[in-house]
Amino acid sequence: MALPLTGRTAIVTGGTRGIGRAISLHLASLGANLVLNYAANSTQADLLAAEINSSSSGTRAVTIRADVSDPEAVKSLFDLAEEAFGAAAHIVVHNAGVLDPKYPTIASTALEDFDAIFSTNARGTFLVLREAANRLARGGGGRIVALSSSLVGALSPGYGAYTASKAAAETMVRILAKELKGTGITDNCVAPGPIATEMFFSGKSEETVKKIAEMNPMGRLGETKDVAPVVGFLCRDEGEWVNGQVIRVNGGYV
């Protein structure tokens, strides 16, 4: 029996580490071909592609380094998907994002740090969504999933620029879902709470991490495996009726 995403190509930005890595592996387990985007660590990307390809007789994963804030680089992601797998991509999971590990108040946020966050998180989302809207396969099975953050609901101090950039992403996703009427493409956000990744731990003391974990009704931090299956469901045919939504995956954190 064919796997649910057999014959479909998925582009995953920021797809080789943290939540993105878990999503890439999960989509591969559902049968998808993968275009794995990364920002800097080619070794990490190549190892993940090799892991996915080892389970198949042919190539099911390719890697590409690209800055999602660069329109030409974003275009190249979609070009590679078509060149590598012979057809337009069906799925885009936009996971690439940055966070300021200094956790400044808005009053103390440096302009260059604000610009860097918005360049990747807001501009990058716009560029990926725009390209996906123009390039994804039509007629059914087209899926866009952008990763946001439950901080948009929590409004925690120290995350002003980051949270604002993710709120911008959520707004664009919800509007685009309506603009894609008639294409068969759905567009949703998945908004994780605190997840045990390198990005989450960066700049936090053990005491802070413990306090955040204890705040959750489930009594722990989330794990990447808590997020990936939610994204996977949205990418399957069964997820078609979920469209234009922001789904918080946070154990009750918000």
TrEMBL record:
This is Noroxomaritidine/norcraugsodine reductase. One of its GO terms (molecular function) is oxidoreductase activity, acting on CH-OH group of donors. It catalyses: (10bS,4aR)-noroxomaritidine + NADPH + H(+) = (10bS,4aR)-oxomaritidine + NADP(+); (10bR,4aS)-noroxomaritidine + NADPH + H(+) = (10bR,4aS)-oxomaritidine + NADP(+). The lineage of its organism: Eukaryota, Viridiplantae, Streptophyta, Embryophyta, Tracheophyta. SMART domains: PKS_KR. Belongs to the short-chain dehydrogenases/reductases (SDR) family. SDR65C subfamily. The keyword Acetylation does not apply. In the Amaryllidaceae alkaloids biosynthesic pathway, catalyzes the conversion of noroxomaritidine to oxomaritidine, a precursor of haemanthamine- and crinamine-type alkaloids, promising anticancer agents. Can also, to some extent, catalyze the condensation of 3,4-dihydroxybenzaldehyde (3,4-DHBA) and tyramine to produce norbelladine, and of isovanillin and tyramine to produce 4'-O-methylnorbelladine. Keywords: Oxidoreductase.
